[in-house]
Structures are given as structure tokens and as C-alpha cells.
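Question (not urgent): is this output format expected?
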Amino acid sequence: MAVKVGMVSLGCAKNRVDAEMILFTLKQAGFELVQDVAFSDVAIVNTCGFIEDAKKESIDEILELVRLKNEGRIKAIIVTGCLAERYQSEVLKELYEIDAVVGIGGNTEIADVINKALEGTKSELFPDKSELPLCGGRVRSTPFYYTYLKIAEGCDNRCTYCAIPMIRGRFRSRPMNDILKEAEELAEKGVKEFILIAQDTSRYGEDICGKSQLPELLRKLCQIEKLQYIRVLYCYPERITDELIDVFATEPKVLKYIDIPMQHCNERILKLMNREGNRKTLSELVCRLRERIPKLTIRTTVMTGFPSETEEEFTELSEFVEEMRFERLGCFAYSIEENTAAAKMKDQIDEDTKHRRQEIIMEQQSRIMAENATKFVGRKVRVLCEGFDRIAECFFGRTAMDAPEVDGRVFFITELEKPKIGDIITVSITDTLDCDLMGIYEMS
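Got this back:
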């Protein structure tokens, strides 16, 4: 009888792609994959270790699996992902009930690790980070109609608050032909929305040919006949070129949605973060994007409470958010990450102040998004149907303005033919629910 393996994958979409590749390797090795780890022989936790909250979530998940193991419901626990890579031997030392810790470079060897664990041998495996494969098969965990395409791994930006270069290593672009081949195969299988991800997608190809190849990649993806939507996440502001803007403006398959992590607008704080720009240059970028790309949705992230951030600098950030009226925005309180340059800086901000500032920005942004939502009442929007909410007794889906898991939804009813999950349909917007839209499905 095949050994049953279940996995819990935490953190970002990039980590999710790694998890899908691990599952493919295990399936090829003859293991039986199960959805619920509680019914597995071996449980894998693909951890996140980016910020403190993510580390806590990973540890809590491991402890829950330890409980199941102590009850005799599972036989072995394998820990991989960013937490394993970052803390290595400390993980097994502190959580001695687990059976193996595997760094990201060892993901392709997890089948052997599992077999050893079932024989009673504990393992610690930490090959070089560059051994993490960029290409290979996946057992996709997303719904059939969308998928993530990881186009690069690692990061060379060296932001002073970020541990990603220590965890994931140097920036490495995935070969373009491999990306295009996978995209074509998935489009043939019915995938409609492709979401391009990397730590910095706008840097794609720089390590190969000295300049960004993202515009070229997007144009070639658009030539795939059955591919319908392309969404781009994580473009750094200083790398958004006129060439890239032209692609967004002219290619109909590239969604008018761009994710630009800005982090702050104050020049002093940005320099301390080892990031470029200031309020003026960022404002000009936003204006240029909106002028060149009609109906553009801009998503950004900002950070409050970076070391030495004054009330005046925070106020400048708040004013910037109000002035720019970003369609989508996330705000994070600065997290002290050991061995980063920012962790050693003077004038660390207390937790209460960091989170108070975060709440102010998020309340402000919630109001802006609610106000923006009312502008769609009386209009028709295209919606990708994602399911039926039995409690609310209505369907729900996403517009081109909304990425999965991080943005909003459209809730809608129908008195006619029911749409199928994965259908792209037209919905007449009749009302709003906070930042979400509500409407009626119209037959196309």
C-alpha cells in the first residue's frame, strides 16, 4: 500500500509553487497524495519565515502536527520552506518531535527523506539554495482556471528590512522558453488567468542578458492563443520602464493591473530601506501609469514604524496614500528580522506605535476603496466566476481589478441560467458591500 503524504503550505504564492513541485516529485516517486494531513502517514509543512507573524503561524502548524503524531494519527513530520532554510539546525533542536528539516535546496530529495523518516532516521538536509529547481512538473493546488507562474527565484535588491536574500539566495531568472512551454500546456488544459510572480518580476532576465526581459516575455505569452488573462505582481517602481508601460497599454491579454511595492514615500526612510525614490518620483510614476494605461488598477504595499520613522514622516506617508488613492493597498507594521541591517539600526519604534500607524493607514485605505467601489454602481463589469456562497445564497467572483487571495470580490445573483465556475461573465453592479461589489449576472 502506498504511503500517504499530506502537505500544509504557508506564506506567499512563490512558496506555493515550490509546494506544488514537491508534490509532483512525490507523486512520481509513488506516494499517495492526500488533501487533509490528518489522514496522512507523513505530513509536510512548507513553512514561511519572512516576518514574525509568519514564523509564528509556521510553528503553530508544526505543533498541531506534533499533537497528531503523539496521538498516533501520523507517523512522521517533515519541515521545509523558508523557516527551515533560515533557521536550519535550530528547528530540529527546538522542535525535537519532528523527523526531518529540509532546506529549499533539498526539495527534490524529500522522497528519500520521507523513506528514512519512516525507518526511524532523522534528517537535516541543507544543500545550496541554488539547488532549488526553477523548472519542473507541478501538482497544481489552485482552481483549474488560474495558476501562478514563478518566473524567477531569489533577490539581489538587499532592502535593509528583508531576509529574503539570506533565505532564497541570489536572483535567478527562469529560462523564457520553459515559461512559455508551461504556459502553453496549461492554457490547453483550460487555465484562463496566469499570474506572474517573483520577488521582483520587473528584474526578470537582467541576470541573463543585462536588461529586463519582462516586456518580451509578456508579448510572447500574449501570442498563446488560448491564454486569456495575464496578471503581473511585484514590479519595483524604479524598474517600470516606458517599454513595460507600452506592453500594459497595448496588449489586451495583459490585465490593466500592476502590483508595485513602494513601502514608503519619504526619501530619508526609503534610503534607510536601501530603496530608491521619494514622494515626488513615486507620484510622477503613478500619474504616468494612469495617463498611459486607462482604467489601470494599482496595488501597492507600504510599511509603518520603520526604525526612526518620525510622526512627521508617517504623516507624509498618510498624505501620500490619500493623494494617490490607490485602488488596492496593503500596510504592514515593520517586523524586526535578525541579521538584517535594519534590525541593528538605532531608534527602533515601539510595537504600539507601529501598529497604531498601520491601523490608521488601513482605515484610511478602506474608506478610499469603499468610495472607489461606489463609482461602479450602475456599470457593467466582467467577472471570473469562482463559486457559490451557500450562506449568502449568491455567486461570487473577481474582476480584472482583483488578484486572488489578496483583493476583493464581486457577489452576484442570477434569475436566468447559472454560470459555471471558471466562466468569464458580465455582471451589472447594483450596490457595494464595504469594498466589494454586488450585482446581477447578465447573459452575454
